[in-house]
Structure formats: C-alpha cells, structure tokens
Amino acid sequence: MIKNLIFDMDGTLIDSSAIIANSINYVRSKLGLPPMESRVILEAVNDTSIHRPKFFYGVEEYRPEHVQWFREYYAKNHTTQTVLYTGVRELLEEIRPYFGLALATNAYRESAQLILRHLHIEHFFDIIVCGDEVSHPKPAPDMIEKIIAFFGCKKDEIILIGDGKTDEEAAKNAGIGFIKVNWGWQRYEDAINSVEELRERLLQLHNL
Fold this sequence. Notes:
The chain contains nine helices and seven strands. The protein is of the alpha/beta class. The strands form two sheets. Strands 5-4-1-6-7 form a five-stranded parallel beta sheet, with helices on one face. Strands 2-3 form a two-stranded antiparallel ribbon. The relative contact order is 0.19.
C-alpha cells in the first residue's frame, strides 16, 4: 500500500519555466554570454546526460557568483514568473488526509521557499528536501533516501511524482515507484496528461 507521496516541484506542481530560463540567462548576461532560447534551457534542465555547468556557463563546476546571480534574479521575479498548474492546490487539499506528502526539488532551499510561500502550498508538505541540502541532487537517490528515513517507511510504500527523466532516474536509483506527468516542460506518450487524471490515480492507490 502506498502511504507517502514525493512530488517534484518545477514542471510538476509549478510552472516555473519562465523564471528558470530567465534566471539562467541573467547569469549568462553577467558572464558576457548571449542568451539561450528558453526551450533549449528547459530541455537541458531535464537531460541527465548533459553536464549543466559547462552547457549553461562554459565551466566545469558552478561558482559562488553563479549561484548568487541566479538567486538574485529569482528573488526579484518569483512573484511574477511562477504559477501553480491548474488544479494543483485542490489536488493537494484532497489527498492530504490520505498520504504523507514530501517535496524533492533540485532548486536551492532559498528559492524553493520563496515560491512555495508565495503560492501558499508550503504547509501541505511534511518534509521538503532541496538540491543544496544533499550531497547529490536528483537523479541521485539522496533526496529520496532522506525522505524515506523521515517517514520511516518501506520502499514499496512511497512513490515519486515528476515530469521528466531526472525524476524517473531518481526513483529508479532509489528503488521506488514513479508516476510521470505530462503537463510540464516536455511531452511523453507514457505519462498522465492532466491533474484530474493524477487525482484519480492517487485516490486509486489509497483505496488499494
């Protein structure tokens, strides 16, 4: 029986495509690099085969100023460039009595909290784990293992819900189930296509 759910944030609960693309391009502008197309940035964010620091900024590792500039843009613009996907708040309200809820996001804690508080959904989650709080973010299993330890559950009692390859590989690496959704930044054939369809799937899991 599934007792706990882990949600990805960007592309699953929240449409943050604009602010992520714009934040990366803001850093690129600080480095004297030309802007990238938003589509290219968003595809790269979910492509686990890409070395992202080199792809985005031409470096082997992110430097402190990259993080500082990214957060700077994020903090100034998160209220105007992020929205909940339609039906997400209602979904969380409905399933909250039946499952332990967790959030696993590769976003920095500071950035994630800004968005979650602005959109008034932070309180739905029993635990939130961010990319700067583990040694290795998704697709590594570190976040999921931390959440499993928090709930004290078995691996067959928890699933991850996400929108891309990064999430799918993270679930596989952690040995838990995965539900892929299809309203984020990429399109898949083997995925759930609406929040309503996800709601029905999750309520079915509760009733098994």
